[in-house]
From TrEMBL:
PROSITE patterns: HTH_CRP_2. This is Crp/Fnr family transcriptional regulator. Gene3D superfamilies: Jelly Rolls (2.60.120.10), Winged helix-like DNA-binding domain superfamily/Winged helix DNA-binding domain (1.10.10.10). Residues 144-207 form the HTH crp-type domain. The keyword Transcription applies. InterPro entries: cNMP-bd_dom, cNMP-bd_dom_sf, HTH_CRP, RmlC-like_jellyroll, WH-like_DNA-bd_sf, WH_DNA-bd_sf.
């Protein structure tokens, strides 16, 4: 397991880390891979050991709306809830970059809640993090102008990738912001003129 938030959190319980490795199925995903489709059933909890996942939702006939990201050392609380309740997924989960995912069976994840108090604390923390993410998403969609949302999105991607340069197209940004590509292109040009960013071929550098 990589040296991320989870290893710091679990360092006082090596048995938990060993059990997580032993009982999980480990899979590798390349950037852009669909890991969970909306309306599918979950029988395991997704834990990101390495990489970054994008969580979005959609309405029939409409574009996906970006909700939040799941970083290395975090799990998908929605897959946890859906698996326990036997309900369909309400979201799509896609790899934002090459990722390694641990799939922990739902019954094992529930058993860990009883066996390891630290796991219980960790899951509660993840629920709080996701709750804050969803509040931020709702606030952004309902209260912020499109130019503010665009800059917020670019800054978020730069922060997550630990680089000022974000590799992304105007169309991809438009899809995540649920707007037209022409709108994004116009706003990016304006921000470039204001020397907030610099545009390149399928990449944007924040200044």
């Amino acid at each position: 397991m990589k040296n991320n938030e989870s290893t710091v959190l679990f360092k006082q319980s090596p048995g938990l880390v060993e059990d997580l490795h032993e009982h999980s199925i480990k899979k590798q995903y390349s950037k852009g891979s669909i890991i969970v489709k909306e309306s599918s059933y979950a029988n395991s909890v997704l834990f990101v050991n390495r990489g970054l996942l994008k969580v979005s939702c959609s309405r029939e006939g409409e574009k996906d709306v970006l909700l939040y990201y799941i970083k290395a050392g975090e799990l998908s609380v929605l897959s946890f809830l859906g698996g326990i309740q036997g309900e369909k997924s309400l979201v799509n989960i896609e790899s934002e970059k090459d990722s390694e995912i641990f799939f922990l069976p739902i019954n094992q994840a529930a058993y860990f809640m009883r066996k390891y108090p630290l796991w219980w604390d960790y899951v509660l923390k993840m629920f709080m993090v996701r709750y804050e993410d969803l509040l931020n998403a709702v606030t952004s969609l309902s209260l912020k102008r499109i130019d503010e949302r665009l800059l917020d999105l670019l800054e978020s991607k730069a922060r997550l990738s630990q680089s000022n340069t974000v590799k992304i197209t105007h169309q991809q940004l438009a899809d995540e912001l649920v707007t037209a590509r022409e709108v994004v292109s116009r706003l990016l040009k304006q921000l470039a003129q204001e020397e907030v960013l610099k545009m390149g071929r399928s990449k944007i550098t924040l200044l």
